[in-house]
Write a structure and sequence with these properties.
This protein has 416 residues and is α/β, with parallel strands linked by helices. It has helices at residues 16-30, 69-76, 113-116, 130-138, 162-168, 190-203, 238-244, 259-267, 282-287, 303-310, 353-365, 368-379, 384-403, and strands at 3-8, 34-39, 49-51, 54-56, 80-83, 100-102, 125-127, 144-146, 176-181, 210-215, 253-256, 291-294, 315-318, 330-333, 335-340, 347-351, 405-408, 411-414.
Length: 416
C-alpha cells in the first residue's frame, strides 16, 4: 500500500483539474492506497477533513501550496507527492528531498525549458498524452509515464431527451448548435473561434438556425496587472468582440451566460456534472450541441473533447500538441502560424480559420446520428475504469516495487 499526497486545484470543484483529481484520488483509495490532498489556491481554510475517503489538508497562503506541501508530506508519511499543475509555477518544490512526481500536461511544442528544468529531480514523471511523453523524452526526461485522463461514461452519455436539454438553454430542436466549453484565456483563442463561426455563416448564407453557445466567462477573471511567474494567460472582453463581428443578433447569433450571474455560479463551484432533478449540468449542456468547437492554441489533454464525444457530439480542434489524440469523430484543423505571448515562451498555434469553417460546414451537412454513434464508441476507450486498470494500476505497482523492493530468487517484486 502506498501513501500518496496529491497537490492540485481542489478535487471537489468542477474544473478539468478538479474532476481528474477527484477521479484519481477516490479511485486510488478504493484500490487500497492511502491518499491525502493539498488543495491549491486557498480552497480549504476549514481545517482537515475527510471526503470520499481522501484526507484533505488545509490550504497554505502560497497560491500553489509550496509553503505547506512538504510539511504535509512529512505529516502524512507520504511515499510520493503528485503535483498536478504546470511545473513552471513551482519555485522550490522540486528542490526538496522528497519523491516528487509532477503530472505534466504539455500543451505546446517544443516543450519549454520552464517545464523541463523542474523535472530532473523527479522520482517519476507523469503526462496525460503521447505528445507530452514524446516531447519530454526528446528533451532528455527519461522516466515518463503515459497516464491519460478519463471520463465517466456511465454519466457522460447521449440522452434520449435532447430536445428537453435544449429547452434548458432556450434552444429549438432544429437549431444547429455549436458549443464551446472552457476558459476565456489567451491560450483558448476564443476570439478566433468567433471568427471561425462568422466565416461559417459567410460560407453558408442560407443557414438561419445556427447558434454559437459559449460556456465561458465573457469578461476576464484575471487582471492584466496581476503577475504570476510562468502565467501570462488572461482573457479578453468577448462581448465587445461579438458586437464588433456582428454576431449578437438573431437568427445566427452567439449566446452566452450573463457575466454577473457567471460570477455567482463560479462562487458556488459551477454547475454539476449531472443533476438528476433536471436542472443545468454538464451532461445536458453537451447533449444540446451538434458540435464542440475547440480550436484552442494548444492542449495538454483537452478533457471537453472526450466528454463531448462521450455524449455523442463530434468535435473540431487544432492539429497541435495533444488535442488530435482525443479526436475520434470530427476534425483536427491545421494551424498556419503561431505566436509566443506567455512568460515561458511557449508557442500558441493559430488555427486556419477557413478550414475550420469548412469543417463546421461538413458537420452541418453530415449524418449526425452516425457521427454520434462513432463518437460514443471512441470515448469509451477513455472510460475511467479502463484508464485505472490499464495505466494507473500498473504505474502504482511499479512505484511500489521500486519504493519497497522485495528480492526473491525469482527476482524483484513488491511486498503483498
Amino acid at each position: 500500500m502506498l501513501r500518496i499526497l496529491w497537490l492540485s486545484d481542489r478535487i471537489t470543484g468542477h474544473s478539468a483539474y478538479s474532476k481528474v483529481g477527484w477521479q484519481l484520488c477516490t479511485r486510488t483509495v478504493k484500490m487500497g492506497h492511502a491518499v491525502a490532498h493539498s488543495p491549491m489556491g486557498g480552497a480549504n481554510k476549514m481545517g482537515r477533513q475527510v471526503y470520499g475517503g481522501v484526507l484533505i489538508y488545509e490550504s497554505g497562503e502560497n497560491r500553489f501550496g509550496e509553503d505547506v506541501a512538504v510539511d504535509q508530506y512529512v505529516d502524512f508519511g507520504a511515499d510520493m507527492l503528485i503535483a498536478f499543475k504546470e511545473p513552471w509555477v513551482f519555485q522550490s518544490l522540486h528542490k526538496y528531498a522528497i519523491n516528487f512526481v509532477p503530472y505534466v500536461a504539455v500543451d505546446h511544442s517544443p516543450v519549454s525549458l520552464s517545464i523541463t528544468s523542474r523535472l530532473h529531480t523527479a522520482f517519476k514523471v507523469l503526462t496525460p498524452s503521447r505528445h507530452g511523453q514524446m516531447e519530454l523524452r526528446k528533451a532528455g526526461i527519461e522516466d515518463v509515464h503515459y497516464l491519460p485522463h478519463g471520463v465517466d461514461t456511465s454519466l457522460y452519455k447521449p440522452l434520449e431527451n435532447r430536445d428537453e436539454c435544449r429547452k434548458l438553454w432556450f434552444l429549438k430542436p432544429d437549431d444547429f448548435v455549436i458549443l464551446y466549453v472552457g476558459w476565456n484565456r489567451a491560450r483558448k483563442m476564443v476570439p478566433r473561434m468567433l471568427r471561425i463561426y462568422k466565416r461559417f455563416l459567410e460560407l453558408n448564407p442560407d443557414v438561419k438556425n445556427a447558434h454559437f453557445l459559449l460556456w465561458t466567462n465573457m469578461v476576464p477573471e484575471t487582471s492584466p496587472q496581476e503577475t504570476v511567474s510562468g502565467v501570462s494567460d488572461v482573457g479578453v472582453n468577448l462581448i465587445r468582440e461579438v458586437m464588433e463581428l456582428g454576431l449578437a443578433t438573431p437568427p445566427n447569433d452567439v449566446r452566452w451566460f450573463d457575466p454577473k450571474e457567471w460570477a455567482k455560479l463560479r462562487r458556488i463551484g459551477g454547475i454539476p456534472e449531472w443533476d438528476p432533478r433536471g436542472g443545468w449540468d454538464m451532461v445536458k449542456l453537451y447533449n444540446c450541441a451538434d458540435v464542440l468547437l475547440f480550436t484552442t492554441a494548444g492542449e495538454g489533454f483537452g478533457l471537453p473533447l472526450i466528454e463531448s464525444q462521450a455524449c455523442g457530439v463530434p468535435v473540431i480542434t487544432t492539429d497541435y500538441a495533444s488535442a488530435p489524440e482525443q479526436v475520434g469523430v470530427g476534425y483536427s484543423i491545421p494551424y498556419n502560424d503561431y505566436v509566443v505571448i506567455s512568460t515561458p515562451g511557449t508557442r500558441f498555434a493559430l488555427v486556419d480559420i477557413d478550414r475550420a469553417a469548412e469543417a463546421l460546414t461538413k458537420i452541418y451537412n453530415g449524418d449526425r446520428e452516425k457521427m454520434a454513434r462513432r463518437a460514443r464508441r471512441f470515448a469509451e476507450r477513455y472510460d475511467w475504469n479502463r484508464i485505472m486498470d490499464r495505466y494507473w494500476k500498473p504505474f502504482l505497482e511499479d512505484a511500489e516495487t521500486e519504493l519497497y523492493p522485495k528480492l526473491t530468487k525469482e527476482g524483484l517484486s513488491k511486498w503483498i
